[in-house]
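retry 2 of 3: previous attempt timed out while embedding acetyl coenzyme *A. Reduced batch size to 1 and resubmitted. Inputs unchanged:
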Amino acid sequence: MSKVATIEIDGKKYEFPVVEGTENEQGIDIKKLRAEAGVITLDRGYKNTGSCESAITFLNGEEGILRYRGYSIESLAEKADFLEVAYLLIFGELPTKTQLDKFYADIKEESAVDEEMKKILDGFPKSAHPMGVLSSLTSALIAFNPSSVNVDSEEEMYKAIVKILGKFPVLAAWTLRKKNSLPLNYGDDSLGYVENLHKMMFEKPGKSYKVDKEVIDALDKLLILHADHEQNCSTSTVRMVGSSHAGLFASISAGISALWGPLHGGANQAVIEMLERIKEDGGDTKKFMAKAKDKEDPFRLMGFGHRVYKNFDPRAKIIKKSADEVLGQLGVDDPVLDIAKGLEKEALEDQYFVDRKLYPNVDFYSGIIYRALGIPVEMFTVMFALGRLPGWIAQWREMRLMKEPIGRPRQIYTGANLREFKEVEKR
Ligand code: ACO
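retry 2 succeeded.
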């Protein structure tokens, strides 16, 4: 028999069905709560609210489990490449070799960006943050690709998906090239997706492009680890914007803005800035631990804590190991890696952090790897966006295929009651 939840308000009982997921997660379906009982639920920050049913990513924060379409993040990070993972997230199954080759060929076919877009990029000052530029350029893509996607046509849906996967790395690379005063370029069809991205970012005029395999492997792994994370702030934004039937590019552009904030994707930049600050201050990690615990001090240990993981972040484990390997392989000796390890050790033994279940998240170590790969700090969140793109696409596609209604939360009003309007002279 299916489960039922009973809510009692003012002595009257109301019953609601309990929905169960494939991993036995349970949610009370309160669709009829307001109509039947005249109340709504209040849940600031949606800490206990499921906004959808989704078959893409499974996350168990208590046990530190993360799976894309049923495959563990550990196995994907070890065995798959980023484009395979993108296909898996978006279409639900790992691609055959033929499907993967076609997917990549179609992406390459759609990677050209309208020349006029360069004028838009030209209008930004060099000092602009790459995330602001990237979100604006992604939004501007709509002007050059105006037809809205007929989501009932699998072909149109596919076309929109390969278009954004093709053009987005070009835009991301251009934001960096603009900052570095380098000529805008395109990729090389003979290279893989991630190597192509790297080439577009770092190729120098007049010099032949060469990169170590270790660099591409590390980048590929980082992108996989960031590829989806169920209903986080930016993904919920993508689904919310898309739920009004705004197009894919508009929804992704909104997702980039949400990701920019230091409490979300911007944390990887904030972590490196924090570690640098600690280093310059003499490296006294205890002093900064005390600041993080002081409620009068706004300082937080960036890269620590997670809304969902309350045991450990499985991505952080993979990344910590990867940071050691990559820095070793590239022969980079970065003192902030030692500061990071010191902070982690202290925090894991500190009662404040233990009580609040605060552990290093994916971004505590990712910035150290990005830096070793020669990626400038301001580009860290752009790298996150590049990784998260397949997840946003998959979630947008699922939301549209499931014909989700427009997202429109309610509120409990706490403002003034009805008041008489007073003319300006009488106020
Ligand atoms: N340093 C010090 N204290 C912290 C930290 C931190 N990094 N994170 C949480 N706390 C404390 C809070 O002050 C609060 O303490 P209190 O109960 O005494 O008031 C308690 O832990 C709970 O914190 P909340 O902010 O309520 O937890 P929430 O789940 O809302 O926030 C978040 C999660 C935003 C990630 C938070 O831990 C944080 O700000 N971390 C630093 C930023 C960061 O690393 N963000 C990246 C997230 S991962 C990602 O986006 C990929």
